[in-house]
Amino acid sequence: MTTASVPLAHALMLAGILFALGLAGVLVRRNILFILLCLEIMLNAAGLAFVAAGSYWGKPDGQVMFFFILAMTAAEVSVGLALVLQFHHHFRTLDSDAASRMRG
Amino acid sequence: MEITFYLAAAVAVASTVLVITRLNAVHALLYLIVSLLAVALMFLTLGAPFAAALEIILYAGAIMVLFVFVIMMLNLGPQTVGQERAWLQPRMWAGPAALAAVLAAEFVWVFASGAASLGLGQAAVPPKQVGLTLYGPYLLGVEMASYLLLAGLVGAFHLGRRARRPDSTGGQNP
Q1: How confident is the model at residue A7, as a pLDDT?
Q2: Which residues, 6+ apart, have CB-to-CB distance to B23 below 8 Å?
C-alpha cells in the first residue's frame, strides 16, 4: 500500500470538520435559504471523504461516487429552491419557523 | 507538496465558518464559492482532476448560479437598488477575494512546480479511468442518476409554477 504524503486520516478529519460545520449551520440558522446552503456544505464534505478515500487506494470509484453525489445535489437543489420560492410566495418570509404548523 | 493541501484546507474551513455566520445571503454565497474552490484545489492535490473540474463547473458554477437566481428573485422591489448599493461595498468582497487569492497563488504554484507531482506520492487517477469505471460497473448507477435528474426537473417545474388561486373559477389557470 503506497502511502500518500497527506495521510488519509487528515483528509477524513477535514471532511468531518466541514460536515460538522454544515450540520451546525442547519441546526442554528432559521433562514431556509441558509439551511439549503448548509446542506450543500454537508454533501460536499461527504464527497470530499469519498474522493480522499478513492485517492488513497488509487481507484476511480471515489470519484464515481462523487459524481453520483453531484447529480443528487443538483436534483435536490432544484427542487429545494423551487420549494423556497413557493415558501416565500405563501408566507412572505424565509423563516422556517413560519411553516412549523401543519394544516391538512 | 503537502502544504498546498493544508493551506487549502485552512481556507475551506475558514470560509465555511464565515458561510454559516453571515447574515446576508449573498455574502454567504460568496464565501461558499470560495470554500468550493478550496475543496476543488484539494481534489487536485489528492490526484482527482476530474472531480476537481466537476466541482468547479457544477458546484461553483451551476448550483451556485441557481442560488443567485433565487436570491435575486426574492429581492424584487423598490428597495433592491439600495440593497445592491449596500452589497457592493468593497469591504464585503475583500474577504472572499483575499481567500480566493490564496487559492489562486496555490494553483499557480502547483502548476509551476510541475503537474507530474499532483498525485501526492501516488499516481493521479486520470479522467479516462473514471469514465471507463462510470460507464462500466456503475452503468446502472448512471441510469438511476439520470432518472433522479428527470424527477428533479419535473418536480422543480411543478413546484416552480405559481400556485393556482383557490378562489379562481373554471379549471386551470395557465
Answers
A1: 84
A2: none
